[in-house]
Amino acid sequence: MLNNIKISQTTEEVILTVNVIATINEVLEELKTRLPKLKDFYQTSTIPIRIKGRLFTDSEMEKVKKIITSQIPVEIRFDDISDLLGLHAIKKTFEVDTDISETKFIQGSLRCGRREEYSGSLVICGDVNSGAEVIAGGNIMVLGALRGVAHAGANGNTMAIISANYIDVTQVRIANLVTEIPERTNKCPICKIEKNEIIIC
Fold first, then answer.
1. Chain centroid, CA 43 distance in Å
2. What is the pLDDT of residues 168-185, one digit of tens each?
3. 3-state SS of the chain?
4. Confidence grade of residue 131 (pLDDT, cut at 50, 70, 90)
5. pLDDT of residue 68
6. Contact 109, 134 (CB under 8 A)
7. How far apart are CA 198 and CA 190, in angstroms?
8. Which of 112, 108, 109, 105 is nearest to 133 (CA)?
9. Which of 64, 113, 137, 165 is the most exposed place for a label (fewest CB within 10 A)?
């Protein structure tokens, strides 16, 4: 069933909105089935393709670009981060101690489709379910299970961390870095940046 990619169009670009919980293999397989129709459209058009929704690692971006450009010679753009707090992209990373920060508490679990954004740190008193998004300028703490999208330090702060009672997602993001999450993680893992990469401890 093809339901991980929604295609829309403006006068300036074609937009592929990718399901935030889709695996890279699901995305690539669906692209293969969708490309013939897009290829027909690009017989008479040259507008770029913008890909939004799911966060992609650098290697995943290359795979997506390769599969599209093998059939369509078109410029491909990826949304770097959400327009959190009016930011259109992370211009630079920085380090600000997040041991003490303004914190917003969310009571209860976040269901699919719900999105929480805050300039400080976020504490979710419950689960973050698949299809939900949590984006914070500071830390993210989930007292239950993290199964949705989590982006800490979304304004570029590399000192931010992500922690949960249990993490069951394919990837997390801190500042401008993304990392794949192993299938099994320790109970109460903490994700943080060390030596310019996200580690899980």
1. 31
2. 887 888 988 888 887 666
3. CCCCEEEEECCCCEEEEECCCCCHHHHHHHHHHHHHHHHHHCCCCCCCEEEECCCCCHHHHHHHHHHHHCCCCCCEEECCCCCHHHCCCCCCCECCCCCCCCEEEEECCECCCCEEEECCEEEEECCECCCCEEEECCCEEEEEEECCEEEECCCCECCCCEEEEEECCCEEEECCEEEECCCCCCCCCEEEEECCEEEEC
4. confident
5. 95
6. no
7. 10
8. 112
9. 113
Q: How do the domains of the chain map onto residue ranges?
A: 5-78, 103-200
pLDDT > 90? residue 16:
yes
Measured between alpha carbons, how far is residue 51 from residues 31, 40, 130, 199 in Å?
12, 19, 20, 27
Side chain identity at residue 97, one-letter code: D
68 token code pair: 């599209």
Specify the fold of 103-200. Answer: Pectate Lyase C-like (2.160.20)
Q: How far apart are CA 14 and CA 68, in angstroms?
A: 13
Query: CB neighbours of 117 closer than 8 A, spacing ≥ 6?
Result: 82, 84, 85, 135, 136, 154
Token look-up 């920085």 returns 94
141: nearest Cα among 97, 104, 100: 104
Torsion angle of alpha carbons 106, 156, 27, 72, nearest 10°?
140
Instruction: Give the mean model confidence (pLDDT) for residues 110-139.
Output: 91
27 and 21 Cβ atoms separated by less than 8 Å: no
Phi, psi of 65 (to 5 degrees): -60, -45
pLDDT value at residue 89: 47
